[in-house]
Write a structure and sequence with these properties.
This protein has 204 residues and is α+β, with helices and mostly antiparallel strands. The protein has two domains: 100 residues, 2-Layer Sandwich (Ribosomal Protein S8, Chain: A, domain 1), CATH 3.30.1370; 84 residues, no CATH class. Helix 2 runs parallel beside helix 3 and helix 5 runs parallel beside helix 7.
Length: 204
């Protein structure tokens, strides 16, 4: 194990810096649970989408180097790397860089990038976002208000002056884009409201 001049292992020193920079809340350690490549991709995408909604900025994804792999190359690392490129095209990730041979620093995109990403960059095999609710009336008054405000901001950026004919479909579009990043559970609508407020802030 390499050491610095004072005898402190460099691996331990790097880990200490990472913990100070990212903390447990912004670190995904796949190496600890030894998932398959498929499991790693599923878990990483869900985690990164949640971190995007939480406005986390930069996060650390630890994949491991694959020292125990028969080929010496980590299939988890390669699968996660492909996922990061995919999520960049889909407006979840704005960039990434290799932090170590077994980890990546990932910069998350602004929430509004979920629907601002050009359609030509969207992948044909990307699973569709969750279905819109049967009626926006099933949402709370506050959520509908936030969706409407966001729809109006979006239409304004497109230069549409007569917004009313397009408001409802735009609200459904905003719901579908943001809801894809929200995990199911009792706090789902509260988290949805938080994501919508973040998106509104990014229009200011």
């Amino acid at each position: 194990m390499k050491s610095n001049r004072r005898g402190v292992p460099l691996v331990g020193l790097r880990q200490a810096f990472d913990e100070a920079r990212f903390g447990a809340g912004r670190t995904l350690n796949l190496r600890e649970t030894l998932p398959t490549a498929v499991e790693a991709v599923t878990r990483t995408e869900a985690w990164l989408r949640q971190q995007q909604v939480q406005h986390s900025g930069e996060v650390l994804v630890i994949t491991g180097r694959g020292n125990n792999s028969p080929t010496g190359v980590s299939p988890v690392r390669e699968a996660v790397l492909r996922l990061l490129h995919s999520l960049k095209r889909r407006g979840v990730v704005s960039g990434h860089q290799e932090h170590t041979s077994g980890s990546f620093v990932v910069t998350l995109a602004a929430v509004r990038e979920l629907w601002d990403a050009p359609k030509r960059h969207r992948e044909r095999k990307t699973p569709p976002p969750p279905s819109s609710p049967p009626s926006l009336d099933t949402l709370s008054d506050e959520t509908r208000r936030l969706l409407r405000d966001l729809a109006e901001r979006s239409l304004d950026t497109l230069g549409i002056r007569e917004r009313e004919p397009f408001i409802h479909s735009e609200m459904l579009k905003q719901f579908g884009a943001v809801a894809a990043s929200i995990e199911s559970g009792p706090d789902r609508e509260a988290n949805l409201d938080r994501a919508l407020r973040l998106a509104l802030e990014q229009y200011e």
